[in-house]
Amino acid sequence: MATPKLKYTTPGLTEEKATRVVELLQDRLNATTDLHLTLKHVHWNVVGPHFIAVHEMIDPQVDAVRGFADDLAERIATLGGSPIGTPGALVEARNWDEYSIGRDTTQAHLGALDLVYQGVIESYRNGIQELDDLDLVTQDMFIAQTEQLELFHWFVRAHLEDKSGALSTAGAGSEAEAARQAG
């Protein structure tokens, strides 16, 4: 979906720069909307001996990531854009596959989430770099959200590493492969 022409933007930011910032924000809005729904899906579908620990670990992540989506949408509006939050638009715009794990063990889901978080964090870091020349206010938002996402990723990875620090998901190229390796 194309970014509509802005009617205005915030003082000190050119329309051209604001348009690109809105595109970056919309991409992260799509990612965080997808992530908080994926995390809730995991919350509902984990089973096994560590069920309650993972079930309860995931909910605060859902709430935080849902808050990130709201902040991103409000920043889009602040810059004169119109945030797009419909499911169809998200599916049309995303460049990642649907989360592929259904009812499964906590380890399988955490293995898959390891790859999910890797992708989300990498795209945030790419945005941070690009925002360095566009808008430091939005860059600051991306940095703060990345810090929290990296913390959540560590929570997930702590369940996947052995005492030497080796991850059970090392080298996995897909969620399904990471789930198998972790399980």
UniProtKB/TrEMBL annotation:
Residues 23-162 form the Ferritin/DPS domain. InterPro entries: DPS_DNA-bd, DPS_DNA-bd_CS, Ferritin-like, Ferritin-like_SF, Ferritin_DPS_dom. It comes from the Bacteria. CDD domains: DPS. PROSITE patterns: DPS_1 (PS00818). One of its GO terms (molecular function) is ferric iron binding. Pfam families: Ferritin (PF00210). Belongs to the Dps family. This is DNA starvation/stationary phase protection protein.
